[in-house]
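Curious: can you check?
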Amino acid sequence: MNSLPSGTVTFLFTDIEGSTKLAQSHRDKWESLRARHHTILRSAMDVHNGYVFQIIGDAFCVAFHTAGDALRAAVKSQTDLYNEDWNDTPIKVRMGINTGTAQVSENTDHSVDYKGYTSMARVQRLMSAAHGGQTLISLATEELVRDEMPENISLRDMGERRLKDLIRPEHIYQLVIPNLPIDFPPLKTLDAYRHNLPIQMTSFIGREKEIAEIAQAIREHRLVTLTGIGGTGKTRLSLQASADLIDEFPDGIWFIQLAPISDASLIPQAVASVWNVHEQSGRALSELLIEYVRTKHLLLVLDNCEHVAEASARFTDELLHNAPNLKILATSRVTLNLAGEMTYPVNPLALPDPQKLIPLTALTQYEAVRLFIERAITVRPIFSVTNANAPAVAQICQHLDGIPLAIELAAARMRALSPDEIAARLGDRFNLLTGGSRTALPRQQTLRATMDWSYDLLPDRERMLLNQLSVFTGNFSLEAVESVFIGKNETKTNTLDLLTALVDNSLVLVEEGNIETRYRLLETVRQYALEKLAESGEVDTVRDRHLDYFLKLTETAEPKLRSAQQLIWLNRLETEHDNLREALEWSLGREDAEVCLRFTGAGWFFWGMRGYRQEGSRFLKAALEKPGAEKRGAARGKALTGLSYMARYLGDLVGSQNAAQEAVAIWREVGDNWWLAFTLGRFGANILIQGDLIEARRIQEEAVKFARRAEDKWALGDALGNLGRALNDSGDYQAARSAQEEGLAVYRGVGDKSCIAEALQELGALAHIEGNGEQAKLLYKESLEIYRELHYVGGLLSLLFESGCMVQGQGDNEQAAKLFIEALVLAQEAGDKDISGRALAGLGGVAGARGRPEQAALLLGASESIFNAIGLDILLLFLHRLVDYNRWVANIRSQLDEATFKAAWAKGRAMTLEQAVALALEQNP
């Protein structure tokens, strides 16, 4: 990559004129013609050091270190194409050359691309203005080659022309090559056609895919309406798409701005003034317009129709019925709802994933980020994205939902604030984002004004629903809306109609789910509606209904998570997770402690299985500490049992044991054998890892007794599994196998896949201990497949570690490292210190086997330190893996002298968990 053109790059873009028509009319030989074309261009580019970084159909995109090389490549390409014997199907290629700033970058699939939108957009526009056989060159390139032109080659000055990007004119030159055609039709630039498209003061960013799709939609439909919430850039997109079609409408493209029109009857006058149609006595203006346009082949762009939607629809319908060659492109927050209308939703700009750390070099591939950077530079020319401010820039774009207007207003604040300061103030975005252009429409000068414009057009009942939808976070279902919405005499049908109206008004987004349709508010819309809900005085009432709905959902789901419907309900709670969080946070601020305890007591099964242990632990602790939560009863008992489970995996063994002990006492008091058996299982597991094998076995046997007494199959399976683990660690493998096999049979009857996988894993561990490696592999494989299917993080973590130990012991260090790394990464995400420590130890064993003893000692020392910090003895944790652990340590000692070994081990012990993880990932990329 270092040898490829970068920094100041000259681009040469090519395209076969009329390729679609040629392909259709010469189907039998088109592929061979195209192959010859490719060979000619490839040869010319290679000879002159051109790097072909993309071929789209028959279009070449080529980068050069120098403008001279690009010019010579164009000369050779056009000469060879002209002299080629094409018979009756001559291939004519149009070309454009421009020099500008761009950086070479590597894609995730290791292909190479260029990041330099402005430079490449310019060359694309130049090429599209040319005709077949014609090569156009920008002023920037001309200035570089004017003193080193090849012999007999010259440039013809074509003057300043407006390209299709609607901003500053470009001084264009045509390449003149001896013995080749030099006279062509007028350039396909904006000034060669009839139109009133306004010059734009800023560049247009991205949307290449949308422009192409809208252009194709206009070719196929007579009415196309761009819809979307205010500020998404519908107007700019309509102008850009129209400009690209300029040569397809001989009678012009005419842009009508309807935003300033408050009287719908004035729409015909606005159009008449643009078409220069004058009123006549005794004749209706609409009649005169129809007469004017009846035979015309033109495109009419009606911008901002939403506030006069009904009148716009009538006017549009009348024109289309009387002018067969007329096409109309409308922009509106709502559709015109006419027969034959093609609706194109304009979504916000592309955003980086907030869940992923995006490298600085890849950040500018996102349109929203590019827009912020370009607009920020206009107010602070020295601004650039750095490693320090990149997270804040990404956060700004994410929090503003990729809405172009909001991003531009945020960038304007760069006059006085840094990206970090802007990001920190976005919670008050409607007061922050007020710095719009003084010449813009009033509703585009502040973010609040844009939202006011959309909100004020809604009927009262639609406003009421929008306000109440603001209590939802993320996406939500129709059922949830029906449960939360409070209106006068509302029915399910009425609620659906109102929700549909908000969708039509682009204020609610529709997302297709696997089972049901989901809905979502952009965060900007949500914050605005939440303000309006607060003004109505209904916040508490609506949030309480939201809480009630999701509490009932979670309590309904809890027993289903221990059944054959487990995956369905896991996925449903995952889908609703954002709203579960929102409802729980609200419950923590309310007086009723019982509700919090019920909610967290029902929810922790989901948190535990899907790896949200830190989050679940926080909610459980907060619920248990609320005033009134000290009342001993089933609600407190379930929350305590959940906290015991969470704390154990987060490394808080004391907290886990205290919670389990109190929960056991509560379950004995209330006489609930099911929950008593289950909680004893958690209590006994803690005793086991502390090394008291006899007491652990006694407690697990007691748990089995209460599970049988409860006559609950799932509780019995859980108790048998826990007993089997205690027997395994005690060395009674035959009894352990018997308990696990009985537990597996019970779970198969219940249909709980997660517990089936746990039992298979334990049986696999027993098989491995007893020397039956092949059986262990099969059992682990079946268990792993189930864990992955369920995305059961808790079980997956343990099994990844166990599998890593097994394959490492068999000498497969590469596979072992992959398994340990996956376990480590997932454990970090889940906050599981136990597995983090084990995985680090496993990677230490791998490092030693690979001949890196000092690194191995560092990792094993760090692992020991992690376990000591959470109060666990590493030798007890590795009880049935003690052979593996001892082998790892012995291997390292055999490669190092004692002083070096101790120094490396001590250095590892001094590391933080984060430092140790970073070291492990660095060694195993």
Q: What stands out?
A: The chain has 42 helices and 16 strands. The chain has a mean pLDDT of 90. The first helix runs from residue 19 to 25.
